[in-house]
């Protein structure tokens, strides 16, 4: 795959930038007593299809995380903040999430990111997994990374370059280009290797 200009790529939030899987397991155990679940068991984006946890409990877990992302222990995926910081040095960072509320995402970035990144963030909450395309086009983006296969397939069908961020819930479900982690994303953006934490 050819190098992607940093100004032309956008990112989903949960499952791409933020480690929603680990946060789900933490909240499921600490608040609801479901402590035997593993990340590998979450084999479907529709979590209730792969876990023996009542749908209403799963909905409560996700609602807890959506409303208080910091307090529920939602952390960045390894390398995400370092790479986003590097993007922000040259471009606006476009984050388009299906969440209905943007303030918890703003608070999360304020907690985990340098101030320089906050000034370059363009955060959009669509409230819907299937209406990201209009914002991607509005911002002049050509590439988008998401962990939801159906979102990526829809974007690809519309002529955009969609990359699936590999997670247990999207394995063997698509034939689209995929990235395994933020080290791969950094390479795609043409960033030279840096030791973690260096700048």
Structural overview:
The protein has 199 residues and is of the alpha/beta class. It folds into 2 domains: 6-18 and 76-188, Rossmann fold, CATH 3.40.50.1000; 20-67. Helix content is 36%, strand content 12%. The protein has helices at residues 20-32, 55-67, 80-88, 103-112, 115-118, 133-138, 149-157, 182-188, and strands at residues 9-11, 93-97, 121-125, 143-146, 161-165, 178-179. The chain has a 6-stranded parallel β-sheet with strand order 3-2-1-4-5-6. Helix 1 packs across helix 2. The longest helix has 13 residues, at 20-32.
Uncertain parts: none
Order of helices and strands: EHHHEHHEHEHEEH
The CATH class of the largest domain:
Alpha Beta
Helix segment count? 8
Question: What average pLDDT do the residues reach?
Answer: 94
Task: Give the number of domains.
Answer: 2
Shape, per Cα inertia axes: globular
Q: Helicity level, as a percent range?
A: 25-40%
What is the makeup of the main sheet? 6 strands, parallel
The CATH topology of the largest domain is Rossmann fold
The N- to C-terminal Cα distance equals 26 Å
Annotated CATH homologous superfamily of the largest domain = HAD superfamily/HAD-like
Identify the CATH architecture of the largest domain: 3-Layer(aba) Sandwich
Structural class: alpha/beta
Strand residue content: 5-15%
User: How many beta-strand elements?
Assistant: 6
Radius of gyration: 16 Å
Looking across the biggest beta sheet, what order are the strands in? Answer: 3-2-1-4-5-6
